[in-house]
Amino acid sequence: MILMTCYDLHSHSTASDGSLNPAALIARAIEQGVDVLALTDHDGTEGIAEAQLAAKNTALKLISGVEISVTWSGTTIHIVGLNIDIANPTLQQGLQAMRDYRIGRAEEIAKRLDKAGISGALDGAKKYASEIMLGRLHFAKFLVEHGYAKDISNVFKRYLVRNKPGYVPGQWASLSEAVSWITAAGGQAVIAHPARYKITATKLRRLIGEFKEVGGIGFEVVSGRQHPEEVKKLARLAEKFELLTSCGSDFHTPDNEWVELGNLSTLPQHCVPIWSCW
């Protein structure tokens, strides 16, 4: 009997918007049978050192990663960097700029919510945030706690999307910037969960083409809760554009039973996995 190696190359900890600290994330990954895990927190690598320490002397192989927010053609896209050197100054300068922007954006979200009659949102959101990341999810948790919405999903629909009181459009890194930061750190740039973006098939092909032109080498064919037909479509796109393929749960919390570490379908046979060149 041949045992397959379980790869999960997209996960989050409390260093960004996950609910488990890095050590607890490693422990859960091992419990779930993950053999190779990438920690890819949003716009920061502060959780990597703790995760490395937790993974030491275990059978789990930890991949140092990051997930960078990008504004492309008016849409927010996420680019995962795998096997990065977290000490690389080019990468860290870029990530610091992203975190600085997040702080300014959070302040503006709080101002807009205050105008809508919701006071104390900034301090309330900070209660849920890490020291290095403050985002919309943390505002959502505050709003649920104070009874402005029944759950996180409801918060986004009522307050944090376009044409709602707390909406502030993101102006993130450019596609070329994000990929260049990752490659400068010796990493591999991957488009995260491409089936999740609300763009046309034509626009997705354009994104993939431009991504490859600036040095991107792969995208997630398998991501979290995903329909098998989406997997097949993305596998065909990977073959067409001659890109490597990745898989990742995009795990954030044990509370979401639909997205669990290691709970992923296998890559289609004709895909070339990104780890084939490791």
Task: Provide key terms for this protein.
278 residues, alpha/beta, single chain, seven-stranded mixed beta sheet, 38% helix, 7 strands
Strand portion, in percent? Answer: 5-15%
The proportion of residues forming helix, as a percent range, comes to 25-40%
Query: Tally the helices: what do you get?
Result: 9
The CA-CA distance between the termini, in Å, is 25 Å
Average predicted confidence as pLDDT: 93
Please mark out the parts with pLDDT under 50 across 5 or more consecutive residues, or reply none.
none
Structural class: alpha/beta
Which shape, going by the Cα principal axes? globular
Rg calc: 18 Å
Q: Describe the largest sheet.
A: 7 strands, mixed
Strand order of the largest sheet: 1-2-3-4-5-6-7
Q: What's the order of the H and E elements?
A: EHEHEEHHHHHEHEHE
Structure description:
With 278 residues, the protein is α/β, with parallel strands linked by helices. It has helices at 22-31, 48-55, 89-115, 121-126, 136-145, 152-160, 175-184, 201-213, 228-241; strands at residues 7-8, 36-39, 61-72, 75-82, 188-191, 218-223, 244-248. It is 38% helix and 15% strand. Helix 1 (22-31) crosses helix 2 (48-55). It is globular, with a radius of gyration of 18 Å.
